[in-house]
């Protein structure tokens, strides 16, 4: 990945993935709907800046070119 995702900014990471943890996160999001919009906006921007197919292909080609240069 180009830039690490930030918990609570671009994504919601669960430590255990247990039913209780999922329910707690859902309750927090229900109580704070602005956080949903915040994460949605950040994750969309992250995708547009880092994960569009054109950008991923460009990074792969740049990485491949660097490897080819280093192999000489």
Helical content stands at: 55-70%
Number of distinct beta strands: 0
pLDDT average, as an integer? 88
Overall 3D geometry? elongated
Low-confidence parts lasting 5 or more residues at pLDDT below 50? Answer: none
Strand-and-helix sequence, N→C? HHH
Topology readout:
Blueprint: H1 19-31, H2 33-51, H3 53-70
Helix pairs in contact: 1-2
Describe this structure in words.
The protein has helices at 19-31, 33-51, 53-70. The chain is mainly alpha-helical and 72 residues long. The protein is elongated, with a radius of gyration of 18 Å. Helix 1 crosses helix 2 (33-51).
Overview in brief:
This protein is 69% helix and 0% strand. The chain has helices spanning 19-31, 33-51, 53-70.
Keywords:
3 helices, 72 residues, elongated, mainly alpha, single chain
């Amino acid at each position: 990945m180009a830039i690490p995702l930030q918990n609570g900014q671009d994504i919601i990471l669960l430590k255990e993935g247990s039913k209780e943890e999922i329910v707690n996160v859902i309750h927090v999001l229900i109580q704070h709907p602005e956080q949903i919009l915040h994460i949605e906006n950040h994750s969309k921007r992250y995708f547009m800046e880092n994960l569009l197919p054109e950008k991923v292909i460009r990074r792969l080609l740049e990485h491949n070119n660097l490897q080819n240069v280093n192999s000489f």
